[in-house]
Amino acid sequence: MAKTRRRHEKAALYEKAALYKVVAKINRDFERVIADLEQFQALGFRKELMTAFSVKVEELRSWVNSEVLETQHDRELSDWAHFGRLNRKWQKRYEDPNDAVLEAAKR
After folding, report:
1. Which secondary-structure segment (H or E) carries 67?
2. pLDDT tens digit string along 43-101?
3. I need a surface site. Which of 14, 17, 20, 29 has the fewest CB within 10 A?
């Protein structure tokens, strides 16, 4: 139990909403860079080079997203397990013994 609590506390070092907000912001900013590169292409300015830059930007975006979201995925799994255990404890504490009898009778 203490190990699980420590792991959950360590994961809580940053706010989820703030992390997802930054992920959205950086993706929006990557989109803006790509749109600017497309404007260079539309002007006829070194189209092949702008395409290569766009590919690099997309690669970087994918790398950033995968690293951040892989870490966040681990946290979400940990939180899911943590809160699932808390929920089961709460349910056991407040479960009505008559419900178990009724459930057994249904079988």
Report:
1. helix 47-94
2. 999 999 999 999 999 999 999 999 999 989 988 998 899 999 999 998 888 877 776 66
3. 17
